[in-house]
């Protein structure tokens, strides 16, 4: 199963999601991330946070949804801007869900306040990914509507 975590800039939330998913996922499951308007660079604080958590990011880079190496089975938007955009036609009838998370890279304040915003975004995304990976895929695989409902419900989870 291939999961695409989609955000506008593909520098922070989608990167965190990709890295955490790939760190936790069973064999045969893989995440990629992309942006509708990628920044072309990864957020340094997001990379530092993942390194602090022991989650590798080697080989990750900010990329466009036009340059995906595989067609995803599921698209998870993690920002409100990307959720409102129309996915490229080549994605077909991919299963979509929205897991909106505030962008910690837009937080201003003290270093501690900004750090707390990154920790919060990480905690939310990790909790949602753990819930996703706990779903019984063999039961949901045959019922697309039930799978979408379960994914949508996960999008409201907070740690």
Automatic annotation (TrEMBL):
Please give the Gene3D superfamilies that the UniProt record associates with this protein. Answer: 3.40.50.2300
One Pfam assignment = LMWPc
Q: List the keywords (alphabetical).
A: Arsenical resistance
Q: Which SMART domains match?
A: LMWPc
- InterPro entries xref list: Ptyr_pPase, Ptyr_pPase_sf
Boundaries of every Phosphotyrosine protein phosphatase I domain copy:
1-135
This chain belongs to which protein, by name?
Answer: Arsenate reductase ArsC
Please tell me the species this chain comes from: Telluria mixta
């Amino acid at each position: 199963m291939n999961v695409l975590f989609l955000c506008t800039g593909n520098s922070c939330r989608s990167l965190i999601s990709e890295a955490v998913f790939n760190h936790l996922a069973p064999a045969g499951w893989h995440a990629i991330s992309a942006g509708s308007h990628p920044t072309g660079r990864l957020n340094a604080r997001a990379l530092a946070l993942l390194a602090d958590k022991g989650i590798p990011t080697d080989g990750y880079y900010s990329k466009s949804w036009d340059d995906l190496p595989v067609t995803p089975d599921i698209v998870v938007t993690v920002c409100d801007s990307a959720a409102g955009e129309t996915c490229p036609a080549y994605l077909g009838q991919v299963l979509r869900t929205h897991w909106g998370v505030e962008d910690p890279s837009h937080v201003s304040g003290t270093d501690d306040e900004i750090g707390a915003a990154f920790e919060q975004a990480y905690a939310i995304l990790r909790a949602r990914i753990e819930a996703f990976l706990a779903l019984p895929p063999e039961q949901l695989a045959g019922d697309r509507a039930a799978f979408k409902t379960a994914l949508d419900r996960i999008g409201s989870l907070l740690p």
